[in-house]
Here is the input.
Amino acid sequence: MNPPPQFLDSGGDDRRDTLGNAAQVRRLPARLAAIGGGIPVARLLPSPTQRMIGAWCFLDHAGPAGFDPGGGMRVGPHPHIGLQTFTWMIEGEVLHRDSLGHVQPIRPGQVNLMTAGHGISHTEESVLGETRLHAAQLWIALPNAAANVAPAFDHYPDLPRWEKDGCRFTLLAGRSDGRIAPTKLYSPLLGVELHSVDGSHVTLETETGFEYGVLPLTGEVRIDGEVFVANELAAMGVRKGVLAFDLAPGTRALLLGGEPFDEPVVLWWNFVGRDRADVAVAMSDWQQRNDRFGRVANYDGPLLEAPALPWS
Ligand code: MN
Here is the structure.
């Protein structure tokens, strides 16, 4: 998925409570956008008052949406640096192709994880005959030490799943309840999907030093006495002890966590740079079509053009 241009420079983030008190839950509204094919997208991160949750630096909720056969998502070749793209598919099927030669469909219950590192380009399109899309796409900022790793792509068809308190858990990233997700990470993170058909009271042990957020995808979640509906991100700050949630019947929600990411980064378009110069070089490399981002083979359509840099 390819977002409209988004610019956030380092700094200006009030997610930490400097007094060390238990953080209050905050309600972050979505900005609504559309990706190709008229599929509605709710964008939760970055937000003006919460750039990231751990290293999770971008969060889009696409759909649920229906479309005519032949429609749906169609995102042409575009580059990434300095991040991992993380796709969690709930409904529908999308084909990923990248400049390393990977051609990988992703289906419900699976994760695609693309590590851009120094540079990669890719495409994403709803497969022929598909008429549904419901997915979450996230980006993970790579820490400085890994910002320039060689690009890679990994497909995870099987993730740890369990049921507790009437809630189905799928571990997308990190560890929880004695399980460890296979997804390759470069910083301490958590990603869990919670799905309750009949309603649940759910508790989870925190990891020391982690901040957390919950996004209802469908239904509603009650946290600290406040109700959050679909596409409202509950930003919980750093928490100790046990996280507790009440899920209404039919609720599907994403729980994200991680150690607060303290390194400065610059997000622009599809890039997570260490600084503005880093982004400017990536822009120039994409515009010049040099070897840095390779080529996506067998995709029939134009490349995405980068928008002008937001600074002069
Ligand atoms: Mn992309």
In short: The pocket of manganese (II) ion is lined by residues 2, 78, 80, 85, 122, 270 (CB under 6 Å).
